[in-house]
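Appendix B, record 7
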Amino acid sequence: MEHSHTNSGESHGSYSSYLIGFVLAVILTVAAFGIVMSHSLSPSGTILSIAALAAIQVVVHLIFFLHMNSSSEQRWNVMAFAFTIMFVAIMILGTLFIMNNTAINMMSR
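Structure tokens (predicted):
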């Protein structure tokens, strides 16, 4: 009797893929640490650069460690992730809008 092994590790990364992801994550972490320790940027520039490095690191983790890509077997994972990002963005922006609107209305009285 022959067993069909679907999903028998095709979606898992190779050793070199994990190594590349690890090296990129370490480089991004060291870069963020270096920016903070060198005091070479203004406070707002430091925050923006750390936010950019953090966003890049999230992408590195998604691609190299969570194996999210555009293949058909990952389509539902990508859609769920996109929905989560959209939901979090709506919640954060809505909260900021409501708090700003409340602060403006409280100041006028």
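Remarks on this record: Residues 75-107 form the longest helix (33 residues). The mean pLDDT is 88.
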